[in-house]
Write a structure and sequence with these properties.
The chain has helices at about 60-75, 170-185, 225-245, 290-300, 305-315, 320-330, 330-355, 360-390, 400-410, 415-430, 435-440, 450-460, 465-470, 475-485, 495-505; strands spanning about 5-15, 80, 80-85, 85-90, 100-105, 110-120, 120-135, 140, 145-150, 155-160, 200-210, 220-225, 255-260, 265, 280, 290. The chain is of the alpha+beta class. The longest helix has 30 residues, at about 360-390. Residues about 30-40 have low confidence and may be disordered. It binds zinc ion. Zinc ion (ZN) binds next to loops.
Length: about 500
């Protein structure tokens, strides 16, 4: 049977505010387990409001509303000028009030979309809604008891619901990764799935190709990583395909949990129907109003978003899509790259003017500089950062020094193996490259006489290889260059040596 997979996502993102959604309790701040390493002791960031004592009144957190709206705008959503808080009623020990304040009929924003890049290029996925709500407390289950930490109770969340637009588990994963990047660019959340500040439930069903109607969906919970999302959906796709082929497709909605150890989904409790929550508008909170001025302000403070940055980097620095993506993955890395390239181009401009370079050469030179910077940044510098576990804003090499390093390379003041030594020293000491180059005696020998002598000597001393080379075994050129580099104590330009050998051995 020819089946089509239908996937939709429901995503919760913890918002990085100072205080909780409806009271002034700390939202954990920079030190919360959600945002950093060590958290506050259990049940210490609580108050009568977030614990739901009678007679208390909630007040909506302005910062959470702004961050939610900012995300909604970045997702190209339509912001509802008026949205309404709603009570979602259910009983569970992690919910001290017996209800959760959320938004139901009139959410903060609707009808958005996010574009991702998959193996076929760009693809757009539609978003149904984005609403704000408070989180529940956290339960810790052990063998014979359950402990509840109310610190998380009442912290702000945004929930994003997509349209059932996904046809492959891979696209669902890529969408979540792009969403995480967006949240980080906007600084509204760390959006780290492993830490639980981005949580995702995935809905999946199959249908025969050509049919329009949707069949009962299965909701998969307990997905703690992007990989888990992809693996669980792939598993579920196969499970449901088998059911269809047996003539017994799922006839009712169900909920299944992902078991990371067994690598399979397991049936769990039946999904509550929406009506079970007995939603009604929250009587303790007025509707939420956002006016044109507030929305215009959010538009004005919107940073350049990942997709726009990728497209601009490709255009401005002649990078291919994969390379631009690599830089944009970390906003700080993209910023560093641009700072280096602007320094290097300034230098090039000054030098190009004095030499009166033609436009064509000028473009080629700019491109060569971009390539050098990208190459050394993403291979050698990333390697040093990986080895030491340092992030780009922690390293000792500032963009000016990195640009100077690249310019020296560009001018062939040293070769690439000397470059590796110099960069490592710069990384360790923060020193400037010219100084290190002199100190370590790594300046490339440009003395034509010395090179010529070395080449002649090598040719004379290796008559056997010379004869083979002349018979057509041209890969031997590498062998000659190697000898030449050794003779010049590693300080020659291998390209120049190659040229000399080729010429003499004609
Ligand atoms: Zn509180």
């Amino acid at each position: 049977m020819n089946l089509e997979t239908i996937i939709g996502l429901e995503i919760h993102i913890q918002i990085k505010t100072k205080s909780k959604m409806f009271c002034s309790c700390s939202n954990g701040g920079e030190n919360s387990p959600r945002f950093g390493e060590a958290g506050e002791p259990a049940n210490t960031t609580v108050c009568p409001i977030c614990l739901g004592h009678p007679g208390t009144l909630p007040v909506a957190n302005k910062q959470a509303v702004e961050m939610g709206a900012l995300m909604a705008l970045a997702l190209n959503c339509e912001i509802n000028r008026t949205s309404v808080w709603a009570r979602k009623n259910y009983f569970y020990p992690d919910l001290s009030k017996g209800y959760q304040i959320s938004q139901f009929e009139l959410p903060l924003a609707v009808e958005g979309h996010l574009t991702i890049i998959n193996r076929n290029g760009e693809k757009r996925f539609n978003i149904e809604r984005l609403h704000l709500e408070e989180d529940a407390a956290k339960n810790f289950h052990s063998k014979d008891m359950t402990l509840v930490d109310y610190n998380r109770g009442g912290t702000p969340l945004m929930e994003i619901v997509t349209k059932p637009d996904f046809r492959t588990p891979e696209d669902a994963k890529l969408f979540l990764q792009e969403l995480k990047l967006l949240a980080r660019y906007l600084n509204v959340s760390e959006a780290d799935m492993e830490k639980g500040n981005l949580r995702c439930d995935a809905n999946i069903s199959l249908r025969p190709v050509g049919e329009e109607k949707l069949y009962p969906k299965t909701e998969i919970k307990n997905l703690n990583s992007f990989k888990a999302v992809e693996k669980a959906l792939t598993y579920e796709m196969k499970r449901q395909t088998d059911l269809w082929n047996l003539g017994t497709p799922p006839m009712s909605q169900s909920t299944r949990g992902w078991d990371e150890n067994k690598l399979e989904t397991m049936e769990s409790r039946d999904k509550e129907e929406s009506a079970d929550y007995r939603y009604f508008s929250e009587p303790d909170l007025p509707p939420l109003f956002l006016n044109e001025g507030e929305i215009a302000h959010l538009q004005a403070i919107m940073p350049e978003l990942p997709r726009a940055k990728r497209l601009r980097l490709e255009e401005e620095y002649q990078l291919n899509g994969v390379d631009a993506r690599m830089l944009v993955e970390d906003e700080a890395v993209a910023g560093y790259f641009e700072a280096v390239i602007s320094e290097a181009r300034e230098w090039l401009e000054e030098n190009a003017n004095t030499e009166g370079t033609s436009e064509e050469i000028w473009q080629l030179n700019r491109q060569r500089l971009s390539k050098l910077i990208f190459g050394w940044l993403t291979s050698e510098l990333f390697k040093l950062m990986n080895e030491t576990g340092l992030a780009i804003h922690d390293i000792k090499i500032n963009p000016e020094n990195f640009a100077e390093f690249i310019i020296l390379l560009y001018q062939r003041k040293f070769n690439s193996s000397a470059g590796q030594i110099i960069l490592k020293k710069m990384f360790e000491t923060g020193g400037d490259p010219e100084h290190i180059m002199e100190e370590e005696d790594l300046i490339q020998v440009d003395d034509a006489d010395a090179l010529e002598k070395a080449v002649t000597r090598i040719i004379n001393e290796n008559s056997e290889q010379v004869a083979e080379y002349k018979k057509g075994k041209t890969p031997l050129l590498k062998f000659f260059i190697g000898l030449g580099m050794k003779e010049m104590k590693g300080k020659a330009d291998p390209e120049k040596l190659g040229e000399l050998f080729r010429e003499k051995l004609k």
